[in-house]
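Work Package 3 (structural annotation) set out to generate three-dimensional models for the target panel prioritized at the project kickoff. During this period the team completed the workflow that converts sequence records into C-alpha cells, so that structures can be stored uniformly alongside our sequence database. As a representative example, we reproduce one entry of 432 residues exactly as it appears in the project archive.
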Amino acid sequence: MSIPYRLLVGSIRLAAPLFSVGASKLARGMEGRRHAHDVLASWGRGVRDPHRPVAWFHAPSVGEGLQAEAVMTALRALRPDLQIVFTFFSPSTEGLAGRIGADVATYLPWDLRRPVSTALDAIRPGVLCFTKTEVWPVLVEEAVRRGVPVAIVGTTLPDGAGRMRWPARALLRSTWERLELACAIDDTDTSRLIALGVAERAVHTTGDPGIDSALRRASSADPEASYLAPFHAEPRPTVVAGSTWEADEAVLLPALRKTRDSVPGLRAIIAPHEPEPEHVASLGSRLRQDGWRTATLSEVEARASVKDVDAVVIDRVGVLAHLYSIASISYVGGGFHHAGLHSVLEPAAVGTPVVFGPRHGNTRAAGDLLAANGAKIASDGVELSTLLSDWFHDDEARKRTGARAFGYIDAHRGASDRTAVLLDDLMKCRDV
C-alpha cells in the first residue's frame, strides 16, 4: 500500500490516545484498537491449538457481523474442529462479538505493517475473510505475503457506492486484485467486483448470508422470553419501528399520532438505533406529550405487563430481531437519515409488511422487497400515516404484503452454505 496511506494511518494511531478518554463510541473504538494486535497475538501464542485450522473473519459493524456469523456457523458445520478469530471496526459490534461464538474476538488492529504482522504470525490463519465491502490494504498485503488466501463474502456494491468512485477505486485496486475469493450477493455485484479488479475466476454469485441470519433469529424468538411474553399476553395492533434516528422520529411520531386516531388500541414500539439513556428519556417525553402512555422495555420486563402502556421505548440492543415477531407492521429506520436504511431482512423474515423512508439505495434487499410487493416507501409523515391506516383497516392486504416479504426471504435462503463450501475449498488449498 502507498506511503501516504501508511503515513495517514500511522498519524491517526499516534493521535489515538487523545481520543481514547471517556465512554463515547469514538473513545471505545480508539482504545480497543490500541491493544487489538496484542489480544490476537496472546490468543495465537497461548491458546491456539496448532493442530486445528483457523479462519479469521472481519466485519465492520453489526449488520456485516450477522452475515459473518451465518457463514461462520455454516463453515463450522463443514469443519467442526475450526477455530475462529473475529474482528470488527465499530464499537456497536462489541455486544455481538461477545456472543458470536468465536474463539477470540476483538477490534481490528491498526492497518499498519507491525500490528497486523504481529497478529498474523501468531494466529497463522488458513483464510482471512472480510465481509460486505470493507477490505484493509496492509492486512491483505501482509496476509498474501504469508500465503494466506484472502476472501470477501456477502459483497454488495449498490449504485453510487464509494468503493466504485475515485479515489477509493484507484487506491484499493491492488487490494481487490489480491483476493482469491469474492462472494457476491447478485450478478450486478459480481460485475462490479470484477470492475474493481477482482479476478473473474475468483468471483461467485452466492446470495446474501444475512438472509440466513435473519431467518435463524426469527425462528429463535421465544414467546415466553421476558421481553416478549407481556406483548403476547396482551395483543394489540402494533407498529414496531426499528433502528430509528432522530430524522426518522421526526416523521414517525406525528404519523403514529395521526394513525392512532383511526386505529383504536394502537401500540407503538420504538427501538432507537443508539439507545443512549438521554435519547431514550427524550423519546419517552415526546411520546407522552403526544398523549401516549409510555414505558421502557426494562420497565415492561420488571412489571411483566404492558397493561396501560401504548408506547414502549427499547432501551437496549440485541432484541430488535425478536421484537419484530410481535409486529403487525414494521417500520425500518434510516430512510430519512443521511447514512441510509438499516436492515429490512429481520422484519421480512417474520412475515410482516415493511415500510421505510425514501433513502434506501444503500440496501439492495430494500429494492428487492419493493419489487416483490413486500414493502412500501413513505416519503413523508402524511404518506406514512395513510399507509399505516390503510394496512390496519385492510387485514387481507396487510397479510398479503407480509407473506410476500417472507416469500422473498424464503426464496433466497442458503447463501451461507454456498459461501461456506467455497471457503472450505479455499482452506483445503492452504491445508495442502
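The mean pLDDT is 93.
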